[in-house]
């Protein structure tokens, strides 16, 4: 029996496993000849991109619903180390170390929120990086009305105005008002702070739209500031400014899983391993990588972005290619010649840009409809339990951009 082991069941890992199972089925390889095994810390696939929303009930897809119909084996555990010479992964399963050998390995362990050593950040700041993190924030917000009166009781500061910080800040005024109720007598305050000179600067042609949408929702923009410390009741900025806030949310960017450090390759500034167009690591035989922990030149020139937009196709191709590599079949290069960004702006709508220079393509309700289609349909695996549906979705093809698809419907 030969074995393809996938580490992680996020967007990249889930689709790697399904891509591999699909190709094995196409080649009519029996499961007692080659098996696909997924190792993941939790028993579900988290639709992580929705963690700025509430409620999140529908964002956890049980892995059994998607993997069992296509005969992919699941192991719930954490991969702690990889022995490249013996082709073994060490898995922590409920505190017990176990080793599993592989013939092909697909690293898809994703990324984590970067938490620099800013005093108080780990103790007092919330985040929406994971499902449990987002749940903890919501629990805290729900008990704000019961806290004793204080200057910052209904103030939330979101620190970091990348895409996640903007999406979260745009959701918060309406969410907080819903929690506080009281006919608006207790005004809520949402502040979005960032080091950059203007909020949303990286969003190219969409930047003025973002500013307009945030202003329209009463969000206070605080560009050009740096976080010095977080306390139980607020933040301190460089230069001495203090802001009273019972809630601080850190959205300071992502870094690849530390498992990437196990490979003898030069990591990029995000901690990612470089892969070739077939998703293979250079000079590490038998190892592929996909998603946030890998860097591919996605159109032959530009590095992939840590995103589910790139993670899903990287996974489908990595799974397909791992099977082809194992069985001596020709592999397929991944090449995506389009790039879009769709940013949720809360009840105001959304903004949709096209191209690497982020040209404004659509905004408001129109873009919001596209965002809903992406978040609630496009990025989900089929949940019908049908082998045929799952294999169809796992084919190594590059989807059309979402806006084009919606217009064609
Ligand atoms: C709030 C938020 C909003 C976002 N919005 C967007 C968006 O609009 N569009 C977009 O394209 N992207 C967005 N992203 C980014 C996107 O979520 C990530 O790029 C994507 O999740 C990466 O997929 P992945 O499979 O590589 O990693 P992950 O989703 O991080 O999955 C990794 C999986 O591996 C598991 N794992 C990790 N380490 C181990 C280990 N050692 N052993 C076993 N299992 C392990 C984890 O538990 C997890 O299940 C957003 C992210 C956040 C947090």
UniProtKB/TrEMBL annotation:
FAD/NAD(P)-binding domain span: 3-312
Alphabetically ordered keywords of this record: FAD, Flavoprotein, NAD, Oxidoreductase
Keyword match NAD: yes
GO molecular function terms attached to this record: NADH dehydrogenase activity
Record bears the keyword Flavoprotein: yes
One Pfam family here: Pyr_redox_2
Domain of life: Bacteria
Listed InterPro entries: FAD/NAD-bd_sf (IPR036188), FAD/NAD-binding_dom (IPR023753), NDH-2 (IPR045024)
Family: Belongs to the NADH dehydrogenase family.
Full protein name: FAD-dependent pyridine nucleotide-disulfide oxidoreductase
Species of origin: Caballeronia choica
């Amino acid at each position: 029996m030969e074995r393809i082991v996938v580490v992680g069941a996020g967007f990249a890992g889930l689709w790697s496993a399904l891509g591999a199972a699909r190709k094995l089925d196409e080649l009519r390889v029996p499961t007692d000849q080659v098996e696909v095994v997924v190792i993941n810390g939790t028993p579900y696939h988290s639709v992580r991109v929705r963690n700025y929303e509430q409620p999140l009930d529908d964002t956890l897809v049980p892995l059994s619903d998607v993997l069992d119909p296509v005969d992919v084996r699941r192991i719930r555990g954490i991969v702690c180390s990889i022995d490249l010479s013996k082709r073994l992964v060490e898995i922590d399963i409920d505190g017990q170390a176990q080793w599993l050998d592989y013939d092909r390995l697909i690293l898809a362990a994703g990324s984590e929120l970067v938490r620099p050593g800013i005093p108080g950040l780990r103790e007092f700041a919330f985040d929406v990086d994971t499902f449990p993190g987002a749940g903890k924030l919501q629990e805290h917000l729900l008990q704000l009305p019961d806290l004793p009166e204080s200057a910052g009781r209904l103030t939330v500061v979101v620190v970091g105005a990348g895409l996640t910080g903007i999406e979260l800040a745009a959701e918060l005024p309406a969410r907080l008002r819903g929690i506080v109720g009281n006919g608006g007598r207790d005004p809520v305050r949402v502040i979005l702070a960032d080091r950059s000179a203007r909020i949303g600067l990286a969003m190219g042609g969409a930047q003025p739209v973002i500013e307009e949408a945030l202003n329209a929702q009463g969000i206070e923009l605080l560009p050009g500031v740096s976080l010095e410390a977080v306390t139980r009741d607020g933040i301190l900025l460089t230069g001495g400014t203090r802001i009273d806030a019972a809630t601080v949310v850190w959205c300071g960017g992502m870094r690849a899983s530390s498992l990437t450090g196990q490979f003898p390759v030069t990591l990029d500034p995000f901690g990612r391993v470089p892969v070739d167009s077939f998703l293979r690591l250079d000079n590490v035989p038998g190892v592929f990588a996909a998603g946030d922990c890998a860097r591919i030149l996605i159109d032959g020139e530009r590095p992939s972005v840590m995103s589910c937009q790139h993670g899903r196709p990287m996974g489908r191709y990595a799974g397909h290619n791992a099977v082809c590599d194992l069985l001596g079949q020709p592999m397929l290069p991944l090449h995506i010649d389009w790039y879009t960004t769709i940013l949720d702006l809360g009840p105001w709508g959304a903004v949709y840009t096209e191209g690497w220079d982020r040209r404004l393509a659509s905004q408001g309700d129109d873009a919001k409809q596209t965002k809903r289609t992406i978040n609630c349909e496009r990025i989900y695996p089929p949940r019908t339990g049908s082998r045929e549906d799952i294999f169809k979705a796992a084919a190594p093809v590059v989807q059309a951009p979402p806006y084009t698809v919606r217009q064609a419907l």
